[in-house]
Amino acid sequence: MTTEPHQPAVPPVPSSAAAAVFRRALRDVLVLLAALAVLGVGVGALAAGQPGVWGALVGVGLALVFSGTTIVSMLVTSRASGARLAAVVLGAWLGKVLVVIVVLALIQDRDFYDRPVLAVVLLVGVVGSAVLDYRAVSRGRVPYVEPGVRQADAGPAHGGS
């Protein structure tokens, strides 16, 4: 029987390294969406005039809401427990889906925007941000354990006495 005091479990990922990955993903997505706004507005204007411009702007805005909220929620909760992180990410996901549905329902019968331009810009924005998120995570240098913490300090390994 050991009399060591119970110590809380060490987070599996050091928050500073994980936060760096999330910051890179956010920066990359913002650069993508800024470029997509410029390109989308230009192509939208050529393809459909003023409605194409509005379609591109609405598409970029929805892509920002859809892609940015997950990254921001992960960045904000990078130091939180797994349960809190999951709750925030799930809440953010529900919120962004609700925002996208409400916006699309509100503009459904309007004619100020071009639907194909909106669809293409939104698709490129969401798929592009998913690719950039994957790239940031796969290239991120996040250690599996926190340096300087011994495994024995994380608590009993086998739970026996």
Q: What's the alpha carbon Rg, rounded to whole Å?
A: 22 Å
Taken as a percent bin, the fraction of beta residues is: under 5%
Structural class: mainly alpha
Output the helix-strand order: HHHH
Largest sheet: number of strands, sense, barrel closure: none
Number of strands: 0
Terminal Cα span:
5 Å
User: What integer is the average pLDDT?
Assistant: 85
Number of helices: 4
Poorly predicted sequence stretches spanning 5 or more consecutive residues? 10-14
> How many independent structural domains?
1
Helix content: 55-70%
Shape: elongated
Describe this structure in words.
The structure is a single chain. This protein is an all-alpha fold and 161 residues long. It has one domain (15-139). Helix content is 70%, strand content 0%. The protein has 4 helices and no strands. It has helices at residues 15-48, 50-76, 82-107, 115-139. The longest helix is centred in the first third of the chain and has 34 residues, at 15-48. It starts with 14 loop residues before the first helix and ends in a 22-residue tail after the last helix. The model is unreliable at 10-14 (pLDDT under 50).
